[in-house]
Amino acid sequence: MDLSLSALRTIRVVAECRNFTAAAAALDYTQSAVSRQIAAAERELGATLFERGSTECPRRSAA
């Protein structure tokens, strides 16, 4: 596993904002860039980090 500092920062900001669009604004990224970065991190980690499908994206609890 080799996540970049940028990916870790994006994960943190999404967790704080609980919304990809708000996180994108806070990071000065596009929403699609945040979504791609989270998806890449999830593939790297082999786990879903955030639930999608609503206006909020709550963190997934560790199993």
Automatic annotation (TrEMBL):
GO terms for molecular function: DNA-binding transcription factor activity; transcription cis-regulatory region binding. InterPro entries: LysR_HTH_N (IPR000847), WH-like_DNA-bd_sf (IPR036388), WH_DNA-bd_sf (IPR036390). PROSITE patterns: HTH_LYSR (PS50931). The keyword Transcription applies. Residues 1-52 form the HTH lysR-type domain. The keyword Transcription regulation applies. It holds the Pfam family HTH_1. It comes from the Bacteria. Keywords: Transcription, Transcription regulation. Belongs to the LysR transcriptional regulatory family. This is Regulatory helix-turn-helix LysR family protein. It comes from Nocardia pseudobrasiliensis.
